[in-house]
Structure formats: structure tokens, C-alpha cells
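Input protein
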Amino acid sequence: MSKDAERLPIALTIAGSDPSGGAGIQADLKTFTVLGVYGASVITALTAQSTQGVTGIHPVPADFVAQQIAAVAGDLNVAAVKTGMLNDADTVRAVAQAVRRYNLHPLVVDPVMVASSGDSLMSEDLVAVLREELLPLADLLTPNLSEAARLVERNVAARTHEMVLQARALMAIGCKAVVVKGGHAYGRESIDILVDGSGVTHLALPRIATRNTHGTGCTFSAAVAAHIARGEPLSAAVAAAKRFVHEALQAGAGLAIGQGSGPVDHLYAVRLPTPRR
């Protein structure tokens, strides 16, 4: 390779596939691309899903998930990694082992437990394995309100101070930082709480009234990973990711894709009009 060759930052997503294109691997790769990052992917499961729900899951064997990770890690200079849907305990263990073996950090863990449609994607036994094996390796964990509550075995947080307490409980497990997302709450603002070694940060933006929310969690965690891959510090990456999702939700509110909960508009930025000179 020429010394003058351009080096794009590389981000890796380890997640399930969404054939409808709004969530999972597809949402992650769209997000990476729009944010100027080269996207690599490891598929953990094939799903049959649409904007109306999940009708089937076909897991990729854990040893083949590990083989995919080895192929990518042995060739590409990965600058950030995110995980999404991990379908079974063997897959969680395989991913955790690969993170340690190939030093796949910074690691953003999106604990995908429930699809936007409400379909459950993770059993209680699997939650326990996730808590024991992968969370202690996370540089950032990105649960929504229900996921955070399930991980710490508490009621869903109703106030921001409860979100902070649950984030700190997750950090006690080993996560270096946690952002509890408040998008599923109520009120005029959507408030996320970032807790890390430097303290607590409240991130608030106006709530957008839209049914097109398919893939918001995947998109957020992918955007964080993309900004980290570009060299931005964690707090700035989280704030930028929240703005990206906010603008994608705003742009996607008028989309008519699918019969159910449609996707956000990942590609809104590439369709912005070119400023006149």
C-alpha cells in the first residue's frame, strides 16, 4: 500500500440482519457510511422481520460468528466496534472471547432485548450471560429504559435520577460508561443520561411525534461507534449520535415505508441541498 493512500476510519458491527433495511446490520452500515466511516460487519442471525414485527430468527452458529470476527480482525484496522442482536449464550461467549483475543476496543454494546415492534429477542438466561460475559468488556453500554431496568432487575426508571442510579449499577458490573436512553419515556423532551468516570451528563432534545422509529437503537449505537472511530472522545460521540438520530427521526417522520413502524431516515444528510455559492 502506498504511503500516500487514504486511510478511512473503520467501524465494525456485530449484529443481526434486518431484511426490511431499517434496523440491525443494514441500519448500522447506512449510519457508518453517512458519517464517513468504512463499515465492516459480522452477522449473528438472519431474521424475518418488517416494520410490522419479527416473524422468524435463524441464528448463525457461534463458531461461524467467531470465524467472521477473526477474518475481519486479522485484516482490517478496526477503530471501533458495536454489538447488536446476540441470539444465544454461545454467541455472546464467542463475541466476548473475540473482544479479548483481538482487543476489539472501544466497544459499544447495544443490549438488543426487544425489537421496536415489541417482539422479545432475549430470554432471561441469555440476559444473565450477557451481564456476566460481555458487559464487563463494554466501553459504553447503550440500553433504553426497559433494557436498563431488566439488566439491573429493577422497575423501569420514571425519573432522571433513577436513570442515573441504574446506569451506576451497570457500571458496577464493569461497564466503563453507560448511556440510558429516554426515548421511550414521555414529555416534551427526549432525555438521555450519560454516566462515565467524569460524572453525569444530561442530553436533551425535543421529542419528535412520529411512528417511524424502527431501528433507532441500532442507529444510535452505530453513530456512537462511527464518531469514536473518527477519533472523537466518548462524550462528544454520544452527543453527536443523539443529534444524528434526532435529525434522522425528524427527516423520517414523513416517510411512507412499510405498513408498521417505519424506519428513520438514515440518508437524510446525503439529500440535503448543496448550498449556493
Observations:
- The beta strands are 10-17, 38-50, 53-59, 80-83, 107-109, 140-141, 178-180, 189-196, 199-206.
